Amino acid sequence: MTPVVSEGYEPGCIGRIAQLHASYYAASHGFGVAFEAKVARELSEFCLAYVPERDGIWLARAPEVEGSVILDGSNAHEAGAHLRWFITSDKLRGHGIGRRLLTQALAFADARNYRKTYLWTFEGLGAARHLYESCGFRLVHQSPGSQWGTVVNEQRFEREAPRP
Question: Domain named N-acetyltransferase: which ranges (predicted)?
Fold first, then answer.
């Protein structure tokens, strides 16, 4: 089945996005309950404060949610739009759906004149880094940290909005 990308909150997406993250990062990097709880808690808080004209949620369905990307625009004009919860399942990984999701989120940011978009990730996710850099992100900060429940080399990437 060809994945369909939908925009906006859908019932069940919080649990499914948290599940995708928890399963993938437990298997690939040994993340545990602290990471899953952080994703579920912060994603829930985001969804409760979600403003469709300011924020974006994109879900890849095939037919259930198999990927997501979220753009938090709540502080976009001061600090930049925060790209979060970007993931695709093993079922869709490597088929271009991640690029499709990311492209839609960045087009949304650009249409709202958000001057900067940023994301936090960690060292060792080569395919994701390649995708970010191909979309104009650049690494601006790197240091050890434990915001995901285990010590990793955290990285902050930023993308400046294209000039008109």
Answer: 4-158
| Backbone torsions φ then ψ of 117, nearest 5 degrees | -125, 135
Residue 63: asked if its preceding bond is cis (omega within 30°), the reply is: yes
DSSP H helices, 30-154, are 33-49, 97-111, 126-134
**Distance (Å, whole) CA 110 – CA 159:** 11
Contact yes or no for 159/117 (Cβ under 8 A) = yes
Joined tokens for residue 119: 């994301």
How do residues 33-80 score in pLDDT, each as one tens digit? 999 999 999 999 999 999 999 999 999 999 999 999 999 999 999 999
Domain boundaries, the chain: 4-115
Topology of domain 4-115, CATH: Aminopeptidase (3.40.630)
Instruction: For 107-132, give one letter per residue: b (16+ CB within 10 A) or e.
Output: ebbbebebeebbbebbeebeebbebb
pTM over 0.85: yes
